[in-house]
Automatic annotation (TrEMBL), chains A, B:
The keyword Transferase applies. GO terms for molecular function: glucokinase activity. It comes from the Bacteria. Its EC number is 2.7.1.2. This is Glucokinase. The keyword Transferase applies. Pfam families: ROK. Keywords: Kinase, Transferase. Belongs to the ROK (NagC/XylR) family. SUPFAM superfamilies: Actin-like ATPase domain (SSF53067).
Length: 326, 326
């Protein structure tokens, strides 16, 4: 198995590692649950062992690409994932570079990797100017402009979740008021609906089905339940989807007008709601993209499933001319 | 005079042409008033004659850079400036290319040229990730990311004036509601203050002084008068500046969070209000850029004066590796 890249996807619920071929195909993959409450050493050992389990045969590794929850220093790759308190300024890139000397080891934000994956091999193929979004327990994204990943000054470009959509609105995890994420992330939407009398599951019960729904690991049960109830016609769940769609529409419009985008892809648990989310999103986007150039922008569901993070991480190495600037 | 570039700045009130040297220095300049209500032929003759008046000595023109009001097709350079009805789909680039065969002729949005000028030779020097804004009769801008001008899919990146800052707010010229431009452009602010009882000039009279204040040609008397009255302590004029500053702060925060910017430059008539505008702008920006990476972004006044448009237009040719992608 020569000429492949090791891809690593570090999330709050799951670690995944894979060997990825030149065209982005997953050759072999291993997953494990993130050790809850693990300290820095435990988390590293879990990852290190998972890589051992993947590399049971000799493999020529040409490079390592990593997607990890933020914040992090970039391109240094010292990570402090919000939902993994055991890693604070953990030198993830350096540790992987020790294990894989002589090849590039590149770490980027997990939402950025999802956007890269959609651009490289998913719903964004052929677009030169797109925003790839993920709407789940948080709202993140990545920007591709002029056919290249935009990093911004500190590797943090794409934080569309912190565009203000409701001035004076609910407080966000970041401390500001009225961010898109504060309104449209699954738990916030569920709380909003509960506060108005929503009875979760009264329309239809969410039974985990064991199937690998796209990004399912990042979706909250409450957000999924809300989407299911909305699909079953629950009035409050529908109102919550409308609220999320309108908030997303305002933030997407800001990105389209500011960056002259062709395309926006939306993935993550909440996007599973389909037209119930995309209809109000597109209506609001249409109201706020009235100039000729902005009208062409389309919003589509993300196309890749649970392997998207791995594909995007691999692209940091396999398609570096487009996705790695440093 | 060998090795210089012809720069052209086409505005609703004024045409300017200049010979610009390699470092962005203006070697010679000619200006004339835009013929009011001029048809396509009259407008072209005015520009053509102005170039004649500039090129009285033989000059080796290495290229032509043009800034013009939008909209336009890009990079084709067929222009339809909103405030010059005589030009609709006028082939400005093609006509200049006929006059200057064999050298590059490049046309871009006037607000983009101002941003390029600030990045190349003004307040944005050294920043790799900036938004250059102009707040005047309209609100426009240009984006530089990773050290390069971002064009977007149709040459329209930088339209920060159409980020929504007041959902359900006033109707914008573009047809949408609550755009930054609908709130913060000079005439909108003046109308807002007048509707609340502002008596223009009761605090201090705006006497045109003939001095070349930066971007003065683009500022409206009403916006300038508002700034003067605010400086003199007029309560309603101050409230208008506060309103503009807060709206600008929300849109700038969206750009900073989405694009991970180091710097935002603000020019145009309204920026003459100084601290009265920048204080509420910075306060609002601070409230909405709470993540570590976003806190570093600074907002500064544009540094270049009335020649900025010419300097930016020249840079499309003189510094093409950074400012011309096509």
């Amino acid at each position: 198995m020569s000429g492949s890249v090791l891809a690593v996807d570090i999330g709050g619920t799951k670690f995944a590692v894979a060997l990825v071929g030149r065209e982005g195909e997953i050759l072999r993959v291993r997953r494990t649950a993130t050790p809850p409450g693990g300290d820095a050493h435990t988390l590293w050992r879990t990852l290190d062992s998972l890589i051992d389990a993947l590399l049971t045969e000799p493999a020529e590794i040409e490079g390592v690409g990593v997607g990890c929850g933020g914040p992090m220093t970039w391109p240094e790759g010292e990570v402090s994932p919000i939902n993994m308190p055991g890693w604070r300024a953990f030198p993830l890139r350096a540790r992987l570079a020790e294990r894989f000397p002589g090849v590039p080891v590149r770490v980027h934000n997990d939402a950025v990797c999802l956007a890269v994956a959609e651009h490289w091999r998913g719903a964004g193929r052929g677009s030169e100017n797109m925003l790839g979004m993920v709407v789940s327990t948080g709202v993140g994204g990545g920007l591709v402009l002029g056919g290249r990943l935009i990093d911004g000054g500190s590797g943090n470009a794409g934080h569309v979740g912190h565009v203000v959509v409701e001035p004076g609105g609910p407080v966000c995890g970041c401390g500001a008021r009225g961010c898109l994420e504060a309104v449209a992330r699954g738990p916030a939407l569920a709380a909003w609906a509960l506060g108005r009398g929503w009875q979760p599951g009264s329309a239809v019960r969410d039974v985990p089905d064991g199937e690998a729904a796209p990004y399912v690991e990042a979706a909250t049960a409450s957000g999924r339940q809300l989407a299911l109830d909305a699909a079953a016609g629950d009035r409050l769940a529908l109102a919550a989807m409308d609220r999320a769609g309108r908030a997303l529409g305002l933030a997407v419009a800001a990105a389209v007008n500011l960056c002259d985008l062709d395309l926006v892809t939306v993935g993550g648990g909440l996007s599973q709601a389909g037209r119930l989310l995309f209809d109000p999103l597109e209506a609001t986007l249409g109201e706020h993209t009235r100039m000729g150039f902005a009208r062409r922008a389309r919003v589509v569901p993300a196309a890749l499933g649970q392997d998207a993070g791995l594909v995007g991480a691999a692209a940091l190495v396999l398609a570096e001319s487009r996705y790695w600037s440093h």
